[in-house]
Amino acid sequence: MAERGAVLEGLRAYRLIAGMWVRSGMTYRASFVFTLFGNLVMTGMDFVGILLMFSQVDSLAGWSLPEVAFLYGASVTSFGLAHLAAGSMPQLGSRIRDGSFDVLLVRPVPVLAQVGGDRFSLRRLGRIAQGGAVLGWALVAADIDWTVSKALLLPLMLVSGAVIFVAVFVAGAAFQIYAQDAAEVQNAFTYGGTTMLQYPPAVFGKDLVRGVTFVLPLAFVNWVPAAHVLGRPYPLALPGWAAFASPLVAAGCCALAGLAWRTGLRSYRSVGS
Prior knowledge:
Layout: H1 2-25, H2 29-54, H3 65-86, H4 92-98, H5 101-106, H6 111-117, H7 125-141, H8 148-179, H9 183-196, H10 206-215, H11 223-230, H12 246-267
Helix pairs in contact: 1-6, 2-3, 2-7, 3-7, 3-8, 3-9, 8-9, 8-11, 8-12
């Protein structure tokens, strides 16, 4: 009961902090619209690169353009949702170095909620809109034999993928408590991870695919469920039920990320110590 109360308190604090930043960001509406549009265009450059690639080839590792667009849209949409919710986590290292992280520790509000809601920005919706548009086109263009299980798996994949990325953000923030200057390391697993997932697993070496399946399970963001939806072979010949394991993987990632965060907080030593 106490743990549930702490979670609800954290969510309430996160909502209030995020709302404060939203009101601040909407003060200048024209600036907000331009930055939102700029964010949408910049994130779309990756897909332009894929389109240019397919202007020279008919398939990529046996995957057609609509199938690769499905991977791209699912990866970018899931990451966009996670980035909207926890995109400020990589800035924790700078807070630790300048001493402002200590201020968060003395407030009667869960620290994770403060770090996650810090500088919440609706301009990040541009990434979600762009990824969702590509995914929508892929669903129409790809030759998908729709079933009830595939239709239900689609939203489950997007939500579970977002939760997995949020867990990676939190775990990266916990690591920064130790390293204090590791934002680029964290970005390698978040931004780098979503870029990798935009391409078929057959493009990469088997050792890398094993690593992002069994060690840092980013494969469950889109590779594994997409194999079921598109009728493609599963990475590493995983069993059929693995396509529906994304929620369990997401829950496990959250548990491990929460443990890492609590361990990091307990071991934190102020910059003045």
